[in-house]
Amino acid sequence: MVTIKPALNGLSTLVLLPTLSSAEALMTIEALILNVKMKAIVQDTRFKVFSIVDSLMAFHRDVLKALGKQFLDGYINLAEGEKDPRNLMVAFAIARVILIEFDISGHVESMFNILFCYFPITFRPPPNDRYGISTDDLRMALRNCLNATPAFGLLAIPVFLEKVSAGSRATKKDTLQTMAVCLPVYGSALARVSSRKLWNALKLEIFQPVDPETEQEALKTTQILVKTIYTDEEASLEHNEDIQGLARDACEECIQILKEPEKSQAKPATKILCTFMLTTPSVARYTISQAVPHLVRLFLSPDEASTRTPILLLLSELIASARDSTTKSSSDVDSPLLPYKDEVLGVFSVGLKLATTRNAALSGLKVLASTKQLLSDEELGFTVHNVDEIIEGDSEELYDSIEPVLEVLTTISEIAPRHVVEQTLPLLSSSLPDKAPTRDDSAGRKKCWQTLTTLSKLCIQGELFEQLVLRLTTKLDLICFPSTQQFLLISADPEPTAAYAHMILKALAQALTTKVKGKHPDVAKYIDRLVPIIFNIFVSSAFFSEEQTTVATEPRLVQVAAEIINLVVQSVPSEWVIFETLMKLSSSNTNFCRKQHLYSIGLSKAIVDGDVSTIAEGFQKAAKSGRLSIFTVLRRPFSIEAPSNYSQKSSIPKERNIVALLSAAVISLYKEARLSLEDVGAFLDMLLNWVLNVADNDMQRAAALHMVSSILNRQVDELSSFLGDKLDAYWNAEVANDGSPLPRRIWAIKSWIWLLILYQITKALLVRKHPLATTFTERLYDAFGDETIGWEAAKAIGQIPSPDTVLTKANHAEVKILYVQKYVVSFISGIWNDAVLITTTDPTRQTAALVALTSLIKSIPRAAYVHEMPSVYPPLLDHTIHINLIPLLLRGLDLPDADIRSNIIDTFLAAAEGETPEKSLVAEHSVTLVNNMLKNCTINDILSTRVRISALRYLAVLPNIVRYDVLHPHKAIVLRELAKVLDDPKRSVRREAVHARTIW
Amino acid sequence: MPGEIFNPNPVVFSTSKSAGRQSDLLAHSLWINDSSQSEDEADDVEPIDQDEIYDLIRSIYDPEHPNTLEELRVVSAPQVMVGVNSVKVEFTPTVPHCGMSTLIGLCIRVRLLRSLPERFKVDIFVKPGSHQSENAVNKQLNDKERVAAALENPVLLDTVEQCLSNVGSQGIV
């Protein structure tokens, strides 16, 4: 007994030696079988035994095979009653080899006994398990043994059935999965014999599931069962409609249940039928031939009129899986649905007529339309016609089912756009009036917007979009340049007309946005079709605006138009540009349209000389001959004195709005396709002056600044002299000039504008990680001490790293990764010092620092998100919070500015992500936090809805990130205070309050 | 949960999409603005209405089925009546002999108790003629003492909590 352990140790090394002969192997195994009493030794030693057998199995399998019955008997003896998971892993591996390679005909039952006694595995690994064996490892190893031989089948089925019906959730799931892998091995004969019993057990799991997951597993197992039974006889059943056995019985059973389609059991029944559809073609055919006519009959029966909606829903689910079954096999077999196509289409078409069944019918039609090669061209046309009837009908009803209507039409337009173009589009666009609904006609206005939204969602496919552009631009032209009698009406009250034009532009922009997101290649060609027309309309309107009222000069319209132009220009692919330079702008490629490069030449002309003839071709002639005078006046004298000339011969303000359109095109040009300007620095200089002295609204200023920053971003290396000049001259002249003689108010506004400029410039540099960026920001930082602009400067610092829409990859700007991180790291410590340390010296500076800090922190996680660098931030954020940011932020909560308060709370919310009760940074401050939040969510103290909502959200998050025992003392107070908030006048606040209170 | 199942196969209705509030549809200005941000800061008071209370109770689970009260049409928006300081909720049991009606009523009461300001008085009734022991159920549901006593019972409270387990998700859109 004492010698066994060392002997096994020695043997376990010896059997690994390649010099071990067969005779010695035989001796070893015989000795093991004869001498080792497993029950008498500890698990480590037993492990040696299993290892030895395992090694022998690997190197001397023939010896063991020759030993035959003696080995099997001996091994079964050894393995019986093993409990240690590590040993079991080895034992299961050995067992699988035995089951597959050895002749076990005499030992089926004993093998079954030593394996099935472990099924199902309920082992749970102890904490700090040395060997790292998980439940799943064991489960998989055992499963591989159970499905190793068909011989187990007869014995295994009863065990499975028992475990499924009696076990817990985990057991059920394990058993169902094991059955799914075992059934195909055990063979179709056995499956057929025991199908009834298996089906009864599975049925129970499907109709009364413990949880959705189990239901899913049961369905999967059912599918495999049916497949196992019928795959063998598939060939003989090829053309036979009828089918015997389980599938037939189960089908009948389900259809029996489907006689009451509105009941809750109908759903699992349909799921089973859908599962059958995915098994073998013959079963699918049979299921369809039973279920579809049954449902159609039910639908048509007058007694069941009230249950038509669920019938249609079930039917569309069925045909959806019929569709999926054919796409899977991907052969050219006809859909099993083909024989019933007419009936089903008929039923759905009838369903369309009634409002109650409409949505269900639409979802069914969508499935039909998306089934390949099912509906013929005429049938698709017929469907479009039917759907169009809904569109023509009552607008209130249409509004209820607009989503599914669009889905059906979009699906069809992908297959056969012709029908939609010919039938639906004329219908929709004819319902758009040629003149705007009047001011009081809010119903008409709503209808217009609904139609336009529908159009913009529908016309995504290339052909449709082309039609849309054509129709809408014509309409737009009609509205913007009305006939004379119309004109009088409009000039009396131009606003409704402008609003209508705005709607149309918005619809175009929406459709374009969807297309750009989907990276449709056809967007680019609209640089020749849509963009010039838009320019044409707006430029002409600006020209006319001196003599008469024009609608297209409204800034809001210009903004949407700019959005459209930006979307199109940025989509022109870069290959075109390269191609262009290769061709040396040869004239032969007119077919290839003006690409960005060529386009930029036209654009430059427009900007520099006001010559818009190349970029604004369209219906209106005026645009051809006229000259824009946005910049031309200012262009000659580059100096600051420009304003004096400007008052005499000015560009009209309406014309200056066009700058937004030009800028929208410029900001998305490639670096290679830059504007052809003689002196870029001078041009930028001029632009900056223009912003300060000429521009008359924020839109113009922003547009011009976007242009500046975008040009800077692309050509920074050539512009260093311009930048050096800016840095000193402008800062001193405009921002830091305390002794400015101008009235204080104007001065403040000016400095604000200058800050904005600096912000834009810094941003342009920052995005390229240019060293000058830091210098610029430091200037800003110096302004903290100034009472009047300190606050704005601080805000600007925080805004700099926040993401914007101008300098982005989509607009082909040069963006360096991690620029935000670098910026933040370089600044945070400085601001930090200011905020904490200079408490005594300068309160203004300190407040400014605090403001900068909060807006900075707020923009960090967002920026990180945009640039997909989430891993960099948490450490940084954690770190800053860790060095006691919290007290500081809490102090910030006392600042009067509502924006800052909600920023701070949002910061807390952002920091709360990923925190757990076990490791929470805010735990020690929870008391203060809770009180502060409560103070911030009551209507009496806080007027801003946003702050109240943020505070409530944070309250709702707290219990998830702080341990319960810390918060428990406050529970009563919080609940009592929140009860008051439940009576908030704002619905959105009440909703958050209810949520927060439920969580507490 | 008790062994007996009162209605093993109830009718499931598809839930309607939460149709916009009537007031939202009418508030259509001349210009289409796609940001509702400005609305939030407006000063007008939004009183608690039928839809809001319905939103609070629609996603309560039925004690017998994995369906919500909305799906089983046990509650519906027109069955909620709101006064100045009172709320009246009517619900329809799926079958007249349903033994779960009191429990459903209790769940609704607990939910409203937790989510409405204290000034509201809540009355809960079964729909007239929809239950065989209508009076008994109504009496039980609106008796303060008996509701309080029921909530002292840990088993019962646990069942109620389970029915209410998912109501929070409705709040966050």
Automatic annotation (TrEMBL), chain A:
Keyword presence, Disulfide bond: no
Keywords: DNA damage, DNA repair, Nucleus, Repeat, Signal
Signal peptide limits: 1-23
Pfam families with a match to the protein in the record: MMS19_C (PF12460), MMS19_N (PF14500)
Domain MMS19 C-terminal residues, every copy: 451-575, 644-877, 884-959
Superkingdom as given in the UniProt entry: Eukaryota
Stretches assigned to the MMS19 N-terminal domain: 3-208
Gene Ontology cellular component terms for the protein in this record: cytosolic [4Fe-4S] assembly targeting complex; nucleus
A GO BP entry: DNA repair
Intracellular or extracellular location(s): Nucleus
Stated role: Key component of the cytosolic iron-sulfur protein assembly (CIA) complex, a multiprotein complex that mediates the incorporation of iron-sulfur cluster into apoproteins specifically involved in DNA metabolism and genomic integrity. In the CIA complex, MMS19 acts as an adapter between early-acting CIA components and a subset of cellular target iron-sulfur proteins.
Protein family according to the UniProt entry: Belongs to the MET18/MMS19 family.
Protein name per the record: MMS19 nucleotide excision repair protein
TrEMBL record, chain B:
GO CC aspect terms: intracellular protein-containing complex; iron-sulfur cluster assembly complex
Pfam short name (any one): FeS_assembly_P
Gene Ontology BP, a term: chromosome segregation
Entry coiled-coil feature ranges: none
Keywords: Chromosome partition
Similarity comment: family membership: Belongs to the MIP18 family.
The keyword Transcription regulation is annotated on this UniProt entry: no
Keyword Disulfide bond: no
Domain called MIP18 family-like: residue spans: 51-123
The protein, known as: MIP18 family-like domain-containing protein
